[in-house]
Amino acid sequence: MGLSAENVSWTAGGRIIVDGVSLEPRPGETLGLLGPNGSGKSTLLRLLAGVRPTSSGVVRLDGNPLRELGRRAVARRVAVVEQHATTQVHMTVLDVVRLGRTPHRRPWGVPSARDEEAVREAIRRTRLEERAEQSWHTLSGGERQRVQIARALAQQPRELLLDEPTNHLDIQHQLELLALVARLPLTSVVALHDLNLAAMFCDHLLVLKHGRAVAAGTPGQVLTEELIADVYGVRTVVTRDGPDGRPSVRFLPPVPDAPTPPQTGTVGGFSSATG
Questions:
Q1: Do 6 and 180 meet the contact criterion of CB atoms below 8 Å apart?
Q2: pLDDT tens per residue, range 188-206
Q3: What's the start-to-end Cα distance of the chain, in Å?
Q4: Number of Cβ within a 10 Å radius of residue 10
Q5: According to the UniProt record, where is the region Disordered (predicted)?
Q6: What's the sign of the alpha-carbon dihedral 171, 130, 136, 31?
């Protein structure tokens, strides 16, 4: 059954941030959340994680409302990778990944052999073996994001929520990171800005505008020139020349404003033109 949301909303200061959104990712698929800044993507992810309670509607895990489940029980199933992670404490990559076992351990408990195996497997999946003893503070942005995914994998979740994981990464690291997420045997919900990356790596898309879901389906169904113009206010050319016929989006420059016609009038009995 997995993770699902039914008509969920969240309001802050009298303003509706998420407005009646429903979703139910298929087991093992990658669902992309699209929409401009302020459309509610990050807030929706927090609702799905149980970090923020819904104002209305319900988020369920295997049919059970999150509010009826303990935080530890949810954390054992649902892992979250935020946009940015930082710490002032000196930690190695191994230390950071071990934090993912926190929901499975008793307070002040000693890590078990099962904990260490989960950590090592997470490091192997994210190809961080050579970085395990390296300081977190010496890593590049792309490497830090991989470490955060490894930490999430150490939780041994079935659902993975990622909030703009490719922000501030160069193209190579963006591609590597999303290819890694797409390969994972997990249900992933990932908020993205880049429409072409979403088309390339996501199985289904959900598009938000002003907190409401305005489109859902496969990348080929959702990414049209008309929808992109409506949601993002930009002109595009959408072709189907991507892998497996997936859409590819080419952005066009804005239409220049029409020049202001010269103004004519009479000054001191003479005709004049300005502009």
A1: no
A2: 999 999 999 999 999 999 9
A3: 66
A4: 22
A5: 243-275
A6: positive
CA 182/CA 94 separation, integer angstroms: 23
Percentage of the residues of the chain whose pLDDT score is greater than 90? 79
246 residue type, one letter: R
Closest to 142 (Cα-Cα) out of 131, 153, 158: 131
Query: How would you classify the pairing of strands 236-239 and 248-251?
Result: antiparallel
20, 57, 125, 187, 270 from 197: Cα distances, Å: 26, 30, 21, 18, 61
Q: Between 269 and 26, whose confidence is greater?
A: 26
Closest-CA residue to 43 (of 256, 214, 35, 246): 35
